[in-house]
Amino acid sequence: MTEEQVLNTHNAEILLSAANKSHYPQDDLPEVALAGRSNVGKSSFINTLLGRKNLARTSGKPGKTQLLNFYNIDDKLRFVDVPGYGYARVSKKARAKWGKMIEEYLVTRDNLRVVVSLVDLRHEPTQDDIQMYEFLKYYEIPVIVVATKADKIPRGKWNKHESIIKKKLNFDKNDHFIVFSSVTRDGYDEAWDTILAEL
């Protein structure tokens, strides 16, 4: 079954931005959280999956997303864009505040079905990437690792880069790993199929 048969992915809008759980939507719609370091391509991933150019704002300035942004998709599903982590120019106080906000959402939100953890296919995972993956495994939160910016690497080297990332993350073979490009749309179908299977 394709995502188009299940929901109209083009019928999407930003619903609200929240700093804590008192602002979360109060219903039982399933949610998919998207986490990753600043400038990993979360906004481009959201826009590509939803077939929209500017629904999620892409920015040349890392660390721009400072709240949990909830996107309503056809009144059947929500994407939750969490603040990008690991950006040095953001103060330690702000990073600590974001970390607490992200942790509160990931640990306490009953609507959460799966976290899409985005990493950059071109580079080894950072310590922040590793900590996020370990955090999700510790709390037994389902996770899909999506390696972005695949178009920046020759296709013949994808497997090598994937192996490096998996080794660094101590990747659980039962989890899903998807190589993705918002430019070529590689990984688009696999990403939707994997997300929908978790709902």
Structural class: alpha/beta
Helicity, as a percent range = 25-40%
CATH hierarchy class name: Alpha Beta
- The number of distinct structural domains comes to 1
Cα(first) to Cα(last) distance is 13 Å
- Specify the number of helices: 6
Please specify the SSE layout and strand pairing.
Blueprint: H1 3-6, E1 12-18, E2 31-36, H2 42-49, E3 68-73, E4 77-81, H3 92-108, E5 112-120, H4 127-138, E6 143-148, H5 158-169, E7 176-179, H6 188-197
Parallel strand pairs: 2-4, 2-5, 5-6, 6-7
Antiparallel strand pairs: 1-3, 3-4
Would you kindly provide a written description of the structure presented here, covering whatever features stand out?
The protein has 199 residues and is of the alpha/beta class. It has one domain: 3-Layer(aba) Sandwich (Rossmann fold), CATH 3.40.50.300. Helix content is 32%, strand content 22%. Strands 1-3-4-2-5-6-7 form a seven-stranded mixed beta sheet, sandwiched between helices. The longest helix is centred in the middle third of the chain and has 17 residues. The two termini are 13 Å apart. The N terminus is likely disordered.
